[in-house]
Write a structure and sequence with these properties.
The protein is mainly alpha-helical. About 85% of the residues lie in helices and about 0% in strands.
Length: about 475
C-alpha cells in the first residue's frame, strides 16, 4: 500500500510542471495588451513573446524525447524544470523586449525537456493497469493551469505589473524540483554511448526557425521584401534537406515511412489545423476585450476562461462517446460545433452582449475539446509506430499553436491594412473600426481552415468505411 501511495505522490511532480507550463502559456496571452503599452512595442512584436516559446518547444521536442531514451527521463525532466524556472526569473526581471524574448527562449528550452519526458515518466512508474488513470489525472491537473491562466492573469494585472505573471512560476518550479528529488526513483543511464541523427536535427530545427522568422519579419517589413522571400526560400531548402537526410540515415529523427499511412497522416494534419484555429482566440481576444471593448484585464481574463473551461469539460465527455462511436465520427460532429462560433466571430460587432459572446466562445472550447486528435492518431498507428506517433502528436499540436499565432496575426494585420489602405501592424488606437475589420478577416481565414479540417476528417471516415467493407 505504501508503494502504491508513493507512485501517486510521484505523479504530482510531473503534473505540476505541466500545470505551470500551461498556466504560463495562457497567462501570457492575457498580458499581451499590457506588454505592448509598458514595453512601448507594436502589437506584432509583442506577439513574439508567445511565439518564441512555442517555436523552441517545436524545435527541441523530438530531440529531448530521443535523448531521454538514452540518458533517462527523470534527469532530463529535472534539468528542464531548473531551466524553465531560470527562464521565468529572466522574464520577471526583463526591462526590455529583447531580454524578455531571451527569457522566453530559455523557458521554451526547459519546457521542451519536461514535455518530452512527462508521459515517459508516468509510463515508467505506473503499472499498465493504472496508467490510464494516471494519464487522466495528469491531463486534468495540466488543464487546470490552462483554465486558471486567463483569470489569474487578469487578476494579477489588475493589481500588479506584468512581471508578476512570471514571478509566480519561480516558487512553483523550485518546489517541483525539490519534490522530484525526493519522490522520483533512481534512474540508471540507459546507454553507454549517445547516438543521434544530428544532421536531421539541424536541418529540421533550422527549417522551423527560418519558417517562423520569415513570417514574423514579413509582418514587420512586408512579405514582398527580398529578405523575407530569401529567408522563406532558405526554410524550404532546409526542409528538403531534412527529408533527404531522414531517408538516408540508419536511425532517423522521424521515420518518414509513418506518413505512408494515409489515415494517420490526415489525422496529424487535421490536428495541426484545429490547434492552429484554437490559437486565434489567444491572440485576438485580449485585444478585442481589453482595447476594443475597454474591459478591465480582470474581466477579460474571466471571460476568456470560458474557452479552456468548456474544453476540459467537453474532452472527457467526447472520450466517452469515442468509445461508443469511434474518434473520427465524434471529431467530425465537434468540428461542426466549432463552425458556429467561428461564423459568429466573422460578423461580431462593437456592442454584442457579453453574456452571449461568452457562450459563443465557450463553443470554441467545446469544439476543440471534443476533437479527438490523440485517439485518432494513436488509433491509426500500428503497434511498431506507437512511440513515434505519440511524439508526432505532441509535435503537430505545438506546431499548430505556433502556426496559429502566425496565421492569426498575419490575417489580422492584413485585414486592418485593407481597411486602412496602408500597412498596419499595431492596434489602431484612433481607428478601432480597422481592428474590427481585421478581426472579421482573421476569423474568415479560421473558418476556411476549419473547412479544410472537416474535409480531411470526412476523407478519413470514407477510408474507414471502405476498409470495413
Amino acid at each position: 500500500m505504501e508503494q502504491k501511495n508513493h507512485i501517486w505522490l510521484t505523479l504530482f511532480a510531473t503534473s505540476f510542471m505541466s500545470f505551470m507550463q500551461l498556466l504560463d502559456a495562457s497567462i501570457v496571452n492575457v498580458a499581451i495588451p499590457s506588454l505592448t503599452k509598458d514595453l512601448h512595442v507594436p502589437m506584432n512584436r509583442a506577439e513574439w513573446i508567445v511565439s518564441v516559446y512555442l517555436i523552441m518547444i517545436c524545435m527541441l521536442l523530438l530531440f529531448w524525447g530521443r535523448m531521454a531514451d538514452q540518458i533517462g527521463y527523470i534527469k532530463i525532466f529535472q534539468t528542464g524544470t531548473v531551466i524553465f524556472t531560470i527562464g521565468s526569473l529572466i522574464c520577471a526581471l526583463s526591462p526590455t523586449l529583447n531580454i524578455l524574448l531571451f527569457g522566453r527562449i530559455v523557458q521554451g528550452f526547459g519546457a521542451s525537456m519536461s514535455m518530452a519526458t512527462n508521459i515517459g515518466i508516468i509510463a515508467m512508474i505506473f503499472p499498465m493497469h493504472l496508467r490510464g488513470r494516471a494519464y487522466g489525472i495528469n491531463s486534468i491537473i495540466a488543464q487546470l493551469g490552462n483554465i486558471s491562466g486567463p483569470g489569474l492573469g487578469g487578476l494579477v494585472l489588475s493589481l500588479l505589473s506584468w512581471h508578476w505573471i512570471f514571478i509566480i512560476n519561480i516558487p512553483i518550479g523550485i518546489i517541483v524540483f525539490i519534490y522530484g528529488r525526493f519522490m522520483f526513483p533512481k534512474e540508471m543511464r540507459k546507454a553507454d554511448k549517445l547516438t543521434y541523427d544530428w544532421t536531421g536535427l539541424f536541418t529540421y530545427a533550422v527549417g522551423i526557425a527560418t519558417f517562423f522568422i520569415s513570417i514574423f519579419l514579413g509582418q514587420d517589413i512586408g512579405f514582398g521584401k527580398p529578405l523575407v522571400i530569401g529567408i522563406f526560400g532558405l526554410s524550404m531548402l532546409f526542409w528538403i534537406g531534412f527529408v533527404y537526410v531522414e531517408k538516408h540515415v540508419s536511425s532517423p529523427l522521424i521515420n518518414l515511412k509513418i506518413f505512408k499511412l494515409p489515415r494517420l497522416t490526415l489525422s496529424l494534419i487535421s490536428a495541426l489545423l484545429v490547434f492552429s484555429i484554437g490559437y486565434y482566440a489567444n491572440v485576438i481576444m485580449p485585444f478585442y476585450l481589453t482595447d476594443f471593448r475597454n474591459l478591465s484585464t480582470a474581466l477579460t481574463g474571466l471571460i476568456m476562461m470560458a474557452i479552456p473551461l468548456a474544453n476540459v469539460i467537453a474532452a472527457p465527455i467526447a472520450g466517452i462517446f469515442t468509445d461508443k462511436y469511434n474518434a473520427t465520427n465524434v471529431s467530425l460532429c465537434n468540428l461542426f460545433v466549432y463552425a458556429i462560433p467561428l461564423l459568429f466571430l466573422t460578423m461580431i460587432g462593437a456592442d454584442d452582449n457579453l453574456v452571449f459572446f461568452t457562450v459563443m466562445i465557450a463553443l470554441l472550447g467545446i469544439g476543440n475539446g471534443g476533437f479527438q486528435n490523440n485517439p485518432m492518431i494513436m488509433g491509426y498507428a500500428p503497434r511498431e509506430y506507437q512511440g513515434v506517433a505519440g511524439s508526432l502528436a505532441a509535435l503537430f499540436r505545438n506546431l499548430g499553436m505556433g502556426i496559429g499565432v502566425s496565421l492569426a496575426t498575419t490575417s489580422l494585420y492584413y485585414g486592418m491594412s485593407l481597411k486602412a489602405h496602408r500597412q498596419i501592424n499595431d492596434y489602431p488606437q484612433t481607428h478601432p473600426a480597422w481592428f474590427l475589420n481585421g478581426m472579421h478577416f482573421a476569423y474568415v481565414t479560421a473558418f476556411l481552415i476549419l473547412v479544410i479540417a472537416i474535409a480531411l476528417v470526412f476523407t478519413i471516415r470514407k477510408i474507414d468505411k471502405r476498409n470495413a467493407q
